[in-house]
Amino acid sequence: MTGQDDTYAAIVGATGRIEWKALEPHFARGEILWVDARLDLVGAAQALINDDRDAVAGWMERGLLGQLRDEQAADWHERDPDSLWAVVIRPWVLVQERSET
Q1: Helix (H) or strand (E) holding 88
Q2: Where do the structural domains in the chain lie, given as residue ranges?
Q3: Cα(13)–Cα(9) distance, rounded to whole angstroms?
Q4: How far, in Å, are 2, 26, 40, 46 from residue 35 at the CA level?
Q5: How far apart are CA 33 and CA 68, in angstroms?
Q6: In degrees rounded to 5, what are phi and psi of residue 21?
Q7: In this structure, are residues 65 and 44 in contact, taking their beta carbons and an 8 Å threshold?
Q8: Which residue, among 101, 97, 83, has the nearest Cα to 37 in the 3D structure?
Q9: Which residues contact 35 (CB under 8 A, 6 or more apart)?
């Protein structure tokens, strides 16, 4: 296994479902990055760990990654979806809502 594979496996092991109420304090501190469902959550986390600025900037420019907006937070608060997945990549908590299909 390469170092990249080891990092990916470690991130997978630290990724899991989470309830919105557990994320609210992180949102209040501005620590949540929203990851679009079209991206691989673990891959996005790995790009942050590896300081892959080109990938991260490209995703941000295309609206696939960014700080969680107030409107999205309000939606998650109201719906309390059970399809939120998160991983901590300090100082960020990356969160993605996955479809249940």
Answers
A1: strand 84-89
A2: 3-97
A3: 6
A4: 26, 15, 8, 13
A5: 6
A6: -60, -30
A7: yes
A8: 97
A9: 41, 44, 64, 65, 94, 95, 96
pLDDT of residue 43: 96
CB-CB contact of 27 with 93 (8 Å): no
pTM over 0.85: yes
Joined tokens for residue 17: 């479902």
The Cα–Cα gap between 82 and 57 comes to 29
43 to 5, 50, 65, 96: CA distances (angstroms): 11, 10, 12, 12
* Range 48-73 average pLDDT: 97
Q: Are 89 and 49 in contact (CB under 8 A)?
A: yes
The reported pLDDT for the residue numbered 14 is: 95
Q: Give the SS3 label for residue 31.
A: coil
**Which residue reads 């109201």 in tokens?**
78
